[in-house]
Amino acid sequence: MPAMENMAGNFFLVGLMGAGKTTVGRALARKTGKTFYDSDHEIEARTGVRVATIFEIEGELRFRDRESSVIADLAKMNNIVLATGGGAVLRPENRAELSRHGVVIYLRASIDDLLARTMHDKNRPLLQTADPRAKLQSLLEQRDPLYREVADIVVDTSQQNVNLLVSRLLDQLHNIPAKT
Ligand SMILES: Nc1ncnc2c1ncn2[C@@H]1O[C@H](COP(=O)(O)OP(=O)(O)O)[C@@H](O)[C@H]1O
Ligand SMILES: O=C(O)C1=C[C@@H](OP(=O)(O)O)[C@@H](O)[C@H](O)C1
Ligand SMILES: [Mg+2]
């Protein structure tokens, strides 16, 4: 078992679909002994249906309401790692909750990598389009300023395996004051 890092506070991951928030978040939680949450999984647990089904039946706006409610609840917890959904930064109240209650990590990747990492997953309704590359590009243009606004750390994930990423991330996190 690798050495456990003992660090205070919450860590919140933001970034586009396929950046690795869920995957890196889970590994970071394991390494730090924090409890892992994923806002999409929490929404699915509360509703009993997949994200894609919520988009289909209720539409994106209602999904965003559910997402805000989950983020507000989870951000108030202690000693957690939370992987948010890629659109969580769209609402100012979500950005406020995240930056107030934890260290926010923006995971970046090239459009090529984002595309490769998401192309086989049907549970990302925004990418079920004729041109997912153009969609990712436009989401990046819209959201990159919001991710940067909320982030305490920006990490490039392209060509980095998850374990290496987590150990580099921990080096950076040691230099940032905890937010609890
Ligand atoms: N650094 C990485 N290198 C290679 N593949 C990755 C990396 N991070 C995540 N992945 C893979 O990309 C896919 C999407 O990752 P995921 O964690 O679901 O992203 P997000 O939650 O940001 O949408 C998964 O199949 C995951 O295994
Ligand atoms: O970028 C977005 O708006 C979304 C990202 C997804 O999460 P991941 O970023 O974990 O794929 C999920 O919340 C939903 O499909 C909407
Ligand atoms: Mg995810």
Descriptive keywords:
180 residues; alpha/beta; 8 helices; binds shikimate-3-phosphate; binds magnesium ion
Tell me what the structure shows.
This protein is of the alpha/beta class and 180 residues long. The chain has a single domain, classed as P-loop containing nucleotide triphosphate hydrolases (Rossmann fold, 3-Layer(aba) Sandwich). Helices cover 52% and strands 12% of the residues. It contains 8 helices and 5 strands, in the order E-H-E-H-H-H-E-H-E-H-H-E-H. The chain has helices at residues 21-32, 39-47, 51-58, 60-75, 92-101, 111-118, 132-150, 162-173, and strands at residues 11-14, 35-38, 80-83, 103-108, 153-156. The chain has a 5-stranded parallel β-sheet, sandwiched between helices. It is globular and about 45 Å long. It starts with 10 loop residues before the first strand and ends in a 7-residue tail after the last helix. The mean pLDDT is 95.
A few lines on this structure:
The chain has helices at residues 21-32, 39-47, 51-58, 60-75, 92-101, 111-118, 132-150, 162-173; strands at residues 11-14, 35-38, 80-83, 103-108, 153-156. With 180 residues, the chain is an alpha/beta fold.
